[in-house]
## 1
Amino acid sequence: MNRNTGFIGWFLDPKRRGPLLIAPAIILLLLVNIVPLMWSLGLSFFKFRANQMKPPSFSWFYNYEKMLTKENIWESLQTTGIVVASSVFIQMILGFALAMLFAKKFPLRRIILMLVLTPMMLSYVAVGIFFKLFYEPEFGLLSQFIQIFTGEMYVLLATPAGALLGVIVADAWQWTPFVMLLSLAGLVSVPKYLYEAAEIDRISWWRQFTTITFPYVRSLLLLAVLFRTIETFKIFDLVYILTNGGPGTATETIAVLVYRMAFQYFRTSNSTALGYILIFIVIVLTSLYLYVIKKRESADI
């Protein structure tokens, strides 16, 4: 029997071997990501609650309209914006400063660098539990330190401002090493002869930084801003473990609100609509960011 005929021949055809090899990965991607994504998108146009036996009823854009007109949604977006802006700003400043430090050789540099990178390798749950114990008023290190000066226990997470600060510090602590790593990759790529020429011309440290160092790192810093903004906008684990959105709704980010609607209040359709509003905001922010970067690069050219 000719191997090029029939099903076996079709299967063994070298032209089809490549697509067949990646077919399992594509099928898995469809089952795990695409199908649930399309299902939830369709569900956002229906009235449906997971804890009720009523069949879904088509409601057009009712869920989106309802979500966009609720005050607590805008409060959660404002809280999320504060966390994103503050945390990413701290990560950029500290990450770049650490990169400048580790760009120079000094004793025990590799060991200290591995220790600094450790937070980035931990899970959100581990970081959340660590900081929850760190902020603990009775035996937490923060309370113990402040108690030396005041003589009283300090409860950081008891106030809205303190709880928000606690979440921001925890997120910045975990992901500052990521920014440092990207910045360090840019710093070590700067040709040494540029610095040598600057030394010969007696150019000041600040001028070297603005004309040599920063241009090499700028693109990587902008990339770090994009990645960290997207990830921080979806922050859930740290907030849920540290404060559970409290006190009150002071730290209730948009991701926490989506979780509560879906699994506590069982407003399934509302939660899916809110989730897609979140995706839309992230896509808009990313598109604006890329547009600004492209315009800036065109202006530089």
Note: The chain has a mean pLDDT of 86.
## 2
Amino acid sequence: MNRISGFQTAVLFAACIAVASPAWSEGKMADPAANRVAVVNGVPIERADFDKEIFLIQKTLLGQGKPLTCSQVTAIRAEVLESMIRREVLYQDSRKAGIKPDESTVTGELAALKRQFPTEAEYKNELGRRNMSEEALRSQLERNSTLQQYVDRQFGSKITVTDAEMVSYYESHLDLFKQPLQARVSHILIQVDPKWDDLRKQEARQKAEQVLKSLRKGQDFAALAREQSDGPTRTSGGDLGYIRTGQLDGQLENVVFRLKAGETSDIIETSYGFHLFKVFDRKPETILAYDVVKEQIRKHLAEEKARQEADQYAKNLREKASVEILLRDEISTAKMP
């Protein structure tokens, strides 16, 4: 884990950012050097890319509510710049080694990113909002693929992780291996449109009450869900599978996770309509056994060791490289790594 992550528990003050970086609205500056933050072996690191990394960190921190001082913000900027320089020297070394991106992996990652958006238009809109073309996104994924292969080949193949290290990690990180309370749940929804008049909404409630009466008489929940539910799980008899705390709206979760196995809820009204739930099974909170997660731990520790080795190697390369930092006045108060 790089040192930047240590700052990811606090908020960047907008005022500090304003002091530390130029206004985005200024556009392209007359002096080309002003659009760069560093030059590494003749290859520029663009200010736009630097600003994007700072912005993403800022966005991550904004919800945490622990403000940083301006000097801490300056230190983050110094660390981001140093991280970009080290990535650049590693990337240059990977190209010298003849490593190329895995195009099938890149294509798969691009497709996975697209699937996060309901439509192609929304995906394109997000790219536009980030001022990024799909070609630029693919180029970044290709670069990441090249670097990952480089780290795996140069360092990952030489890494060993002992059983003692894995056991120690497991015992000191038990919270990571908690399985929260789970419940096997089925759902019936009698949908309501907020635009409906009171009479139509009342008819929907009466339908929900009739379904509940049928359930109280012992009718099969799955059969009623297939016949009466307006929810997306209708075809599967209302089956939601095993769900964990945090997956449902708070109002629904408060009811569902109080139910015992075999119990059916009363009617719960939300803006979507009237809900009925039945819990078929409950699994208490547990901690996954070491044997279940040890290979996952081995992989994590191997990757962490490889990253540390790569970072040290990058630091050595950086010391030998020709590096011109063009942000010295802006980060001069920060201690560089």
Note: The chain has a mean pLDDT of 84.
